[in-house]
Amino acid sequence: MAATRRYHSPRRAEQAAQTRRAVLAAARDLFVANGYAATTVAEIAREARVAVDTVYTVVGRKPALLREVLETAISGGDVAVPADERAYVARVREATSALDKITAYVTGLVEVQRRLAPVFLALRDAAGGDTESAALWREIADRRAQNMRRFAAELRTTGELRADLSDDDVADIVWSMNGTEYWVLLVGERGWPPERFATYLIDAWSRLLLV
Q: Global pTM?
């Protein structure tokens, strides 16, 4: 018996991708504007101009929507991208001096925070009253901690870190200053341009971490 040929339509695939983008954009806008708890899947569907069942089909339930909104904000694309595969992480690895590694990292961080900050704050608020959001918050926090240790190890390879700082010390310092809350304080509340934030962070980490 002949094998069944799987039908593939590029046009249909692109339409599905466009629908998914519309759903995630609607979810992002509503989560940020109204909060996670107050937003319903029906409202997301209405904003995206699709049926409720379509939302469930292309992304999933509300917790899945929040996860995908967050992951795509971090990656800057239509799907989640593991940290090791992100372009700015590759630039960090390729840099040879500690200052160049810090500069590459901060440049990537600023790009991410422009997209991520409002979504991250929506997740933080949701985590206070929703168990699935709280679990996602902890998962993201654990991932950040692991990534900070990797970054500290990258800096260690240059031989330019202060001898009195362990990798955990370096990771904690970076963790405390690369968080969305710190970005919001300076860029959101104090009105710093992102370029000033980047210059400040590069200078601060160079002074705090390097010999």
A: 0.88
Pair 139, 93: CB distance under 8 Å = no
Q: What is the pLDDT of residues 22-62, one digit of tens each?
A: 999 999 999 999 999 999 999 999 999 999 999 999 999 99
CATH code: domain 82-209 is 1.10.357
Could you tell me the maximum CA-CA distance found in the chain, to the nearest angstrom? 71
CA 114/CA 10 separation, integer angstroms = 32
Calculate the dihedral angle through the C-alpha atoms of 22, 27, 32, 33, rounding to the nearest 10 degrees: 90
CA distance 151 to 146: 9
* End-to-end Cα separation, the chain, in angstroms: 71
Conformational region of residue 162, where left means phi above 0, alpha means psi within -120 to 50, and beta covers everything else: beta
What CATH number should be reported for the domain whose range is 10-61?
1.10.10.60
